[in-house]
Design a protein that fits this description.
The protein contains two helices and six strands, in the order αββαββββ. With 127 residues, it is α+β, with helices and mostly antiparallel strands.
Amino acid sequence: MDIDLPTAPIHERMGIEIVMASAEKVVGTMPVEGNTQPFGALHGGASVVLAESLGSIGSAIHAGPNASVAGIEINASHHRPAASGEVTGTATPLRLGKTLATWQVEIVDDQDKLVCTARITCAIRPR
C-alpha cells in the first residue's frame, strides 16, 4: 500500500481489508460471511459500503493531506449474488479534478464474476 490509512471502525466490523491504494487504483476485499441479507447472499448495502470506502480512499489520496473529501453521490447495480467466500472491489478513477473525484468500482466474487458495479463521486475541499 502506498499510504498509511487510519483505522476505520466500519472496516473492522465488516472485515474490509485494503490491499492496495493509490490515486490511480484502490483494491479491497470483504468476506461475504457476516455481511449477508436474510436470504444468505451478500447484502447490497455491504457492497455499497465497500465501494464507497474504496472511492473515498482514492479521492483522499488524490486530494492530498491539505484537503478533505466527502462522498456526495453513489449508485450501484447488483448483477449477481455472492453467497460465500470473499469479494474483491477495484476502484479506478473516471475523473480526478480539483473539487470533484469520480470513481468506478467493480466488485467480483471468488470466481472473478461481476457481483456489483458502483460509481462514487466525492467533493474535495481545502482544510
